[in-house]
Amino acid sequence: MRIAVAGGTGKTGRRVVDKLRKQGHQPVVLARAHGVDLIENTGLDAALDGVEAVIDVADFGTMNAQKARACFGAATTNLLAAAQRSGVRHHVALSIVGVDRVPTGYYQAKLHQEELVRAGGVPWTILRATQFHEFADQILAQVPGPIAIVPKMRSQPIAVREVAAHLCTLATGEPLQMAPELAGPRVEWVADMARQLIRRRGQRRPVISLRIPGAGGKGMANGGLLPTGPGPRGEQTYTDWLAALAPDRT
Ligand SMILES: NC(=O)c1ccc[n+]([C@@H]2O[C@H](COP(=O)([O-])OP(=O)(O)OC[C@H]3O[C@@H](n4cnc5c(N)ncnc54)[C@H](OP(=O)(O)O)[C@@H]3O)[C@@H](O)[C@H]2O)c1
Q1: Using a 6 Å cutoff on CB, does residue 37 contact ligand 1?
Q2: Rounded to the nearest whole angstrom, what is the distance from the C-alpha of residue 204 to the centroid of ligand 1?
Q3: Which of 72, 121, 225, 238 is geometrically suited to a Cys-Cys bond with 98, CB 3.0 to 4.6 A?
Q4: Measuring CA to CA, which residue among 149, 88, 93 is closest to residue 116?
């Protein structure tokens, strides 16, 4: 099958592309590095020629509420319109568990993306997954200084490789609309994840966990980003992921 991967050069996307290749499919990368700009709406029609399914794992490098909404809004609208013109039979989008319960700006932008997919006229599947194991590292990178202040938050983190594999399975199947939520094997406090990562790197940096003010922070602290029902679960624990980190990645 010819399957387009929006964001196919990113953390999730490159693993989706690898997996599709191994399965004998023909991945088509939709990313600026491959001449396709989802926001500027350039290169899409040519790239989607002959494509049967699209997996959307693009991201736009912003947590700012307005920017994130504008980026996900424009990219999703352009992608779905081009997919309709090309006769794409299945649009699969990756979203996040709890986007409807935790009203932060980024999650509201993801919810907006979901609404566009639902109304977009292409048969669809939305997969909500939990945070990747890389999440604590991303948080630490955002908080400079000798002490790391991280949000009070529980997560059930998953290996991005397992998310990518699941997306490939979904894309080659029938559209499910809302797929069962995908999560990792264990619930963790994000502050503990950060502490373990710092230790693994042989560093010393105290971590303080603070509740983010407002409804979003309350939702995070109260488990709003954990799955609510049964669904597929990844195998690799955060501890296993840490142990497997290559020395140059720690
Ligand atoms: N991080 C998590 O814990 C987590 C958990 C669940 C779900 N998710 C979701 O997973 C998705 C993928 O996240 P990720 O961390 O894998 O993303 P990422 O590594 O930041 O990759 C982003 C991708 O989007 C592409 N892109 C950016 N701007 C573009 C544009 N204007 N036109 C075309 N392509 C563009 C980038 O390629 P170019 O720069 O070459 O254009 C890149 O391939 C996101 O939607 C995110 O919400 C993340």
Answers
A1: yes
A2: 31
A3: 225
A4: 93
Mention every residue, 6+ apart, whose C-beta is less than 8 A from residue 63. 105, 106
Quick one: which of 130, 136, 249 has its CA closest to 189? 136
> pLDDT, tens digit, for every residue of 33-53?
999 999 999 999 999 999 999
Ligand 1 atom with the shortest distance to the CA of 134: 3
Note the pLDDT of residue 144. 86
Alpha carbons 44 and 31: distance in angstroms, whole number: 10
Tokens of 204: 């010393």
Query: What separation in Å is there between the alpha carbon of 11 and the centre of ligand 1?
Result: 7
- The number of folded domains in the chain is 1
Q: Residue 233, class by beta-carbon neighbours within 10 Å (0-12 exposed, 13-18 middle, 19+ buried)?
A: middle
Verify whether ligand 1 is closer than 6 Å to residue 246 (CB atom). Answer: no
Ligand 1 atom with minimal separation from the 14 CA: 43
User: Could you report the per-residue pLDDT of 55-70, keeping only the tens digit for each?
Assistant: 999 999 999 999 999 9
Asked if the model's pLDDT at residue 250 lies above 90, the reply is no
* Model confidence pLDDT, tens digit, residues 216-225: 999 999 999 9
Kindly state if the Cβ of 57 falls inside 6 Å of ligand 1. Answer: yes
Q: What is the CATH number of the domain that holds 37?
A: 3.40.50.720
Residue 247: band (very low, low, confident or very high) from pLDDT cuts 50, 70, 90: low
